[in-house]
Amino acid sequence: MQINANPAAWLCIVYLQIDFVTVAYLASSMMKRFLLALVMLMLSYPGAQCQVKDTIMSGGQVRLHKIIIEGNSATRRSVILREINIHEGDIIPADSVAALLQENKLRLFNLQLFNEVDQRTKRNADGMDWYIKVKERWYIIPSLTVQFADRNFNTWWVKEGHDLRRASAGLTVTDKNFRGNLESLAVTVQDGYTQKLGVSYMRPYVNKGQTNGLGFSLSVSQSRQTYYSTDSDKLVYAGTYSGPVVWREAECGISYIYRPAYASRHIFQLSYKDYSVSDTILKLNPDYYLNKSDRARFVELYYRYEFNGVDNWNYSLEGFKLMTTGVVRSGIEGLKFQGFANVEAGVFRSPVPRWYVSAIFRGRLMYPQGQPYYFQGGLGTQTDYVRGYEYYVIDGSNYGLLRLDLKREIFNNTYSIPVKYFTAIPLRIYPKIYMDAGYVSSPTPGNSFLSNQLLYSAGVGIDVVTLYDIKFRFEYTFNHLGQNDLYLHFNSE
């Protein structure tokens, strides 16, 4: 959960978010009725359609003479031209101009550099000029980040009684458009449950053709408490909030990015990682790392391929995306060899205006399957969980997850305010119904009652998308165990 603004503005937004979250959970019974009522509105509310201001031409072809860009006081013109798929001198079918402008408007939004993108065309004797006017975001962003020791907000709020000692507060100062080249430079300082220091840098284009990029990262972190085992699909913790440090991690890595086309990207990363735990953790679980070691040191080679053929990378409604990851780890201590591959594929469609369906699959295969405890987490962490099982962790080497959604846009509006970098505040609301299914394969399930069996759930919810890519997901889910509850998330499915 992040809030990005100038000091006065982000304090207001933090206050509103905290208040909004608190009210939602304290009044959960009211929210359940509210969710059901809004889903009924999907069948009756006319909605709002997004309008694009373009000059629509018809008949014949037209030559694009000039591209005039305004408002990019920080962003270099070359960065903007890299994203669009029509260029000066191109000959375009006149009846395709409106569609091309809309497509390229979305491309520029996906840079996440602009709050607004306005465009128009001007016809002249033998062609047209294309005017693009952008309103830049605030790029140097002090982000207040609140992280929980638990896997998600719901576990922390409900199961851990929203104990603030289990929260970490961090300040990350990021320049998301360093030198106007789309470079990213970030420094992180975090305190609380987990203490962390980190720095990262990424330059997406280092060559004239703007296809190659380089980056690096360095971080150290520690905590006085950590989990050491999984009991009945629940994490078991050891350590105290004020005692000695029981867990440490240090990581450094260099990255190479190859982007041959707009929607495709290859990422290679070589890292060295050094993890360690105290004798207290090792006594409780001698198999935390390999060979009863209190330390794991290894070299990791990471490869990721991304194809982002969706309309909006932040909150997708139409298109197709594919992300595959391959990781090979060679151990120096506490780990021998580990290799695994992850895949995520998503299909997003709009069968009729304002209605959207999606199917997302995530899966992992690992070799060899028998790994030290720390390296075998399955479903239940980060984004890989079956909705309705937020309170469980299912360890295992291989897993699969399928999510199906049907949603309708019932509100889409942008509010203008006289504040720099916040001149436009978008607000979109999508009631939805959904179903999930998942499976975790574990050769040594122990006392897990959720591994090696089909998990499934269904529910109703509301997605809210607003300023600076902030998202809220309110979901009331029923799982195959007969349990049902209201859950809150701050990311996309």
Q: Count up the domains.
A: 2
CATH architecture of the largest domain: Beta Barrel
| General form | globular
Major beta sheet summary: 18 strands, antiparallel
Which tags fit this structure?
2 domains; mainly beta; Porin; globular; single chain; 493 residues; 18-stranded antiparallel sheet
Topology:
Elements: E1 2-3, H1 7-26, H2 28-41, E2 61-70, H3 77-83, E3 91-93, H4 97-109, E4 114-124, E5 127-136, E6 140-148, H5 153-159, E7 167-178, E8 183-192, E9 194-203, E10 212-223, E11 225-231, E12 234-239, E13 247-258, E14 264-277, H6 279-284, E15 295-310, E16 319-333, E17 337-349, E18 355-367, E19 398-408, E20 411-416, E21 424-441, E22 455-465, E23 471-479, E24 484-489
Parallel strand pairs: 2-5
Antiparallel strand pairs: 1-6, 2-3, 4-5, 6-7, 7-8, 8-9, 9-10, 10-13, 11-12, 13-14, 14-15, 15-16, 16-17, 17-18, 18-19, 19-21, 20-21, 21-22, 22-23, 23-24
Helix pairs in contact: 1-2
What does it look like?
A hairpin with a 4-residue loop joins β23 (471-479) and β24 (484-489). This protein is 14% helix and 50% strand. The protein has 2 domains: 61-136, Ubiquitin-like (UB roll); 140-489, Porin. It is globular and about 80 Å long. The strands form 3 sheets. It has an 18-stranded antiparallel beta sheet that branches. Strands 3-2-5-4 form a 4-stranded mixed beta sheet, with helices on one face. The chain contains 6 helices and 24 strands. α1 (7-26) packs across α2 (28-41). With 493 residues, it is mainly beta.
